[in-house]
Design brief:
The radius of gyration is 18 Å and the shape is globular. A hairpin with a 3-residue loop joins β1 (44-45) and β2 (49-50). The two termini are 27 Å apart. The chain contains 6 helices and 2 strands; from the N terminus they run αββααααα. The protein is mainly α and 160 residues long. A two-stranded antiparallel ribbon has the order 1-2.
Length: 160
């Protein structure tokens, strides 16, 4: 989780080829990603959001990219509120749980910088402190705001 279809197909083809040495391994289907010409366009900044990752998860369907991207962005304020509540309650366990959940969502849409922060928050469960968790959470509002702006610009600049 998250599953990258092109990697799954390649791995399955490799395993199947090993099981039947006489049969040639089939080529994995081409990854359906956003146009390479958009490499420097909004939505392709790995520190913020790389929509080619989300695109690969949804088979290149731009309507799904839009829908899931918008759902992710719409959920950010609630996620931040949950993090703030857990901080105010001093619940390191809840913060780590939220970090885990947000990490998965962030990776799915290609928000790798946010995913890395959330993973750090999740790891606070193993010997971390509330102060460490607070420093991590304090970085998220600005990052979430940048992600939202970049995602909005990218989603509205693509044609379905």
């Amino acid at each position: 989780k998250p599953v990258m279809p092109e990697r799954l197909y390649a791995l399955l083809a490799q395993w199947l080829a090993q099981g039947d040495a006489g049969a040639p391994a089939s080529e994995p289907p081409p990854a359906a990603t956003m146009s390479a010409s958009r490499a420097n366009a909004p939505g392709n900044n790995p520190e913020l959001i790389d929509l080619s990752i989300l695109s690969a998860h949804v088979g290149g369907d731009l309507q799904k990219v839009r829908r899931y991207g918008e759902m992710f962005v719409e959920g950010l304020p609630e996620a931040l509120a949950e993090l703030q509540t857990a901080l105010s309650e001093g619940s390191l366990s809840t913060l780590a749980d939220l970090g885990h959940r947000l990490k998965s969502s962030a990776r799915m849409v290609g928000a790798m910088g946010m995913a890395a922060l959330c993973e750090s928050l999740e790891q606070c469960r193993q010997g971390g402190t509330l102060d460490e968790a607070q420093r991590i959470v304090e970085q998220l509002p600005a990052l979430m705001s940048q992600i939202s702006a970049d995602m909005a610009e990218a989603l509205h600049s693509t044609n379905p």
